[in-house]
Write a structure and sequence with these properties.
- This protein is α/β, with parallel strands linked by helices.
- The chain has one domain: Metallo-beta-lactamase, Chain A (4-Layer Sandwich).
- The protein has 7 helices and 13 strands.
- An 8-stranded mixed β-sheet has the order 4-5-1-2-3-6-7-8.
Length: 303
Amino acid sequence: MKRNLVLSFLAIAAAALVLNAQAGSGGGITSSAPQNVRPPRFLRLYVFDCGTLHNSDAGRYRFKKEELATTEMSVACFLIAHPKGTLVWDTGAVPDNAWTPTGIPMTQHIVLPDSQQRDITVVKSLKGQLSELGYSPSDITYLVLSHYHYDHTANANEFAGAAWLVRQVEREAMFAKQPPGTTQPSTYSALRNSKTIILGTDEHDVFGDGTVVIKSAPGHTPGHQVLYLKLAKTGGVVLSGDLYHYPEERRLDRVPTFDFNEEQTRASRVMIEAFLKKTGAQLWIQHDFIGNAKLKKAPNFYE
């Protein structure tokens, strides 16, 4: 009798596991959390320090240097932990495999395919910051890049095992015979063979409950997008991608000289500003050096 009860219990437990896996997420992808990380009851947002971009050319953003509080740019990466899975938004400017963290700031010099040169100072690796939370790249359900520029894709290859959510025009540009000059194709080449979900609507509700929504905001690049998060305590937050780089862009209505389509950028800004007003959400400008410094960083989180 005891043996039959044990077998019945095991059968019920196994069935429950199967049903839980089949429930999946809004995007139809299932994910088991890492063994030492329990899925949160409510949505969490972790902010990672992915470095500082030293920009000396304010003119590319249609500014004089004295018009900006600082020309420095933060490089931010994010982990969104949802009860049904995890999502990484943007992956930094310097690949983890290009340097070894020592705890001391290190400046990396990058030469882009179009011969532009950039200096980025980094202290922590992206994988190291994930590891501090108990995650590895293989634990990530979704990878979402705001766009294809090098300072957002540096560690994309690490997440090739996740489902990549991308717009068709963006993917086509990334894998064109001659990709845009501000890309580093070697950092995202593995995504060519990733499970890819092409986003065909202006909004994509990732987990099906309205708390994590990818919004189309083209202009900076053909398939540029922003991310809306509905956090239980913090409220609504929109991660900007490169809709803006400096808060002064927003205040003074400046559009960078190198945007793919300036008219689209302006239209996307109008649309997102209306969305912010309607929802009361905050806009976090990812490259805002001063604003980003005020955000709490992982292992702390927003919920």
